Each structure stands twice: as C-alpha cells, then as structure tokens.
Amino acid sequence: MITLKSLRKVFELKSGNVTAVDDVNLTIDRGGIFGIIGYSGAGKSTLIRMLNMLERPTEGEVEIDGQNLAKFTNKELRKSRQEMGMIFQHFNLLWSRTVYDNIAFPLEIAGVKGEKRHERVKELIQLVGLEGRDKSYPSQLSGGQKQRVGIARALANNPKVLLCDEATSALDPKTTDSILDLLVDINKKLKLTIVLITHEMHVIRKICTEVAVMDNGRVVEKGRVLDVFRHPKEQMTKEFLKQITEQDDTDETIQELLNDAGSGDIIQLTFSGTSAERPLISELIRTFQIDVSILHGKITKVQGGSYGTLFIQITGDQSEKKKALEFIMTKEVEAEVLSRD
Ligand SMILES: Nc1ncnc2c1ncn2[C@@H]1O[C@H](COP(=O)(O)OP(=O)(O)OP(=O)(O)O)[C@@H](O)[C@H]1O
Prior knowledge:
Number of helices: 12
Oligomer: single chain
InterPro entries: AAA+_ATPase, ABC_transporter-like_ATP-bd, ABC_transporter-like_CS, ACT-like_dom_sf, MetN_ABC, MetN_ABC_transporter-like, NIL_domain, P-loop_NTPase
Largest sheet: 6 strands, mixed
CATH topology of the largest domain: Rossmann fold
Domain ABC transporter: 2-241
CATH architecture of the largest domain: 3-Layer(aba) Sandwich
Order of helices and strands: EEEHEEHEHHHEHEHEEHHHEHEEHE
Number of domains: 2
Shape: elongated
Organism: Alkalicoccobacillus murimartini
GO molecular function: ATP binding
Radius of gyration: 25 Å
Structural class: alpha/beta
Bound molecules: adenosine-5'-triphosphate
CATH superfamily of the largest domain: P-loop containing nucleotide triphosphate hydrolases
Keywords: Amino-acid transport, ATP-binding, Cell membrane, Membrane, Nucleotide-binding, Translocase, Transport
Number of strands: 14
C-alpha cells in the first residue's frame, strides 16, 4: 500500500516560489489501478515523480508498505526504485538500441546475465505482444509499439508498482485503447498496482478503479471511479466528466421527452454498480403483461460496474404496470415515475 501524507513540493525560482503539490493525502491500495486526473499545471507529474523520489518532497511523507521513502539512503532508494517501474508520454527509449536491447537494459543494470536475461526478455516481448519485432529499432516502430517496449522495460525487474506518466497522451484513440487494454491485462495477470496520471477522463473511465482529481496542486476529489462518476461533487470533476458524456439529462431533455411521449407511464431508471448489467428490461417484459419502450438514456461501463440513466415508457393494464413498478423497486436501481397516463 502507498500512503501519501501531507505531501508538498515547492519549486524555488528566481521569479518566486511555485507550489506544485500542496498538502496531498492519498491512500493507494495494492492491486488496483489508481488514476490522477488534472489539467496541465495541476501538479500531476510532480506528484507521480515523488512516488519514486525522482522528485524529493519539500514536506510530507511517501510511505510504501509503512516505510517512508524520504528517509531512504541513496542505496535503499535504488533498490526500492527497482520495485517501481515507470513509463512516459514520450517513451524515453534508447534510440540506438533494438527492442530486445532496450528491454534487456534494466536487466543488465540489475546484474541479470546470460540465459536468464535472454529468457526474461523473450518472456517480456511476448507479454506486451511484440513477437517478431525484437530486432527493430524504436524509429521503426509505431507509437503504440514504442509504448509496448516502454512497458516491457518497466516490468523487466518484476516491480510491484507501475507508474504511468501520461502514457497514452501521444497516441491516437485506437492505439490508446490497445495500450489501456494491455495495462488492464498486466494489472490482472501480474497483480501489479498501477498509478497513472492523465488529463483524459476516457482513460479513467476505461481502466481505473479509483480516481483523484487534482487542481492547483491539491486533490479536490477522490474515491471509487463508480462513486465519483455517479455523484461528482466538485465543479472540476464535473468538467472532466463532460469529456465523456455525450448527452446530459438536462431538465429540457426530460421535458421534451414528456411532451413527445404518447400514452403510458414514463419512468426514469438510474443504475449504479452491477445492476445495469442485469437484463431488467427483458425481465419486465417476460414477467408482466406490459410493453416497454426505451425512450432515451446512456449506460457507461467503468471498471467494477456500470452506471447511467434510462428513460422507459410502460404501457398496459394499470394493475400490471403497478406490479412492474413494484418489481423494479426490488432491484438495485433507483426508479422515479415522471408521468402517468
Ligand atoms: N522542475 C521544475 N521547476 C520549476 N517549476 C516546476 C518544475 N516542475 C514543475 N513545475 C511547476 O509546477 C507546477 C505543476 O507542474 P506539473 O508538471 O507537475 O503539472 P502537470 O499537472 O503534470 O502538468 P503537465 O501535464 O503540463 O505536465 C507548474 O506550475 C510547473 O510550472
């Protein structure tokens, strides 16, 4: 477990002091994918670089399994850094070395030799899906392939934690998704804790289990992705959520729905957690003598569940409609009748 306590970083410049990270307290559990989101200048890079002491905190503690890294000697730090791999937006590969030699590099530094090193490199190439490309140079690879080399290199010495500094920001949307899928895959396969920073809510939505929102050096909101997405508290979080919401259920949209609807009861269903996965609508139709039409809505999948709203219209006999509504109420879903006929 990683615990950040009252973490602060102040850069002293001739033009004055810049507080890049200001009193950050976070707990990052083992085995999850923890995302930190914020606009440019929010302090994300400085924060993630303090997790492996590439940047020394001005104040506060970075505790890994109860040990404060700020108190480590350089030798202890070198050892602890082997337990934390890192990948970067611009890959930071060695351009004069092949894929194979890039991946072998951290093993050379760690003193892994001969057949053992060869076997490990082969294993890593397979893990990140770069079979057949081992003799290529970085300049001969696509952005996605370069990041795969970065990931393999970061994983070479079996770290417990992978730090990702805007790892997909230089990639197109399709390649971004394939790299995000790979991160989820290695998180599960290797039980690796992943901490990433990003300015894209899509990245948080697709792979993170927990999120912290940063603004001006501070964490302004944090929690399980599903909870934060369903009930964002801060304006900054709501702004980020707009990046992935194609339609909002504004009062106007709802009013239009009500105006346009013919006969039947209109019900707003709000799903959270696993309930959206359940085939509620088909169950309703099968169990009761009613017709159900979906009028409008969106269900978004996040790690650990789904959330979203559906507007449905139910037509049929009054007593059947009543029974159907009672049935909905027994499910893990909030239901509100917006209009009855
Ligand atoms: N080495 C440094 N020296 C001086 N100021 C710095 C240094 N690194 C970061 N800063 C300042 O700290 C603040 C936070 O920067 P940081 O790079 O951590 O933010 P960020 O959220 O990662 O943004 P970006 O995505 O643009 O890198 C900024 O005002 C930045 O100018």
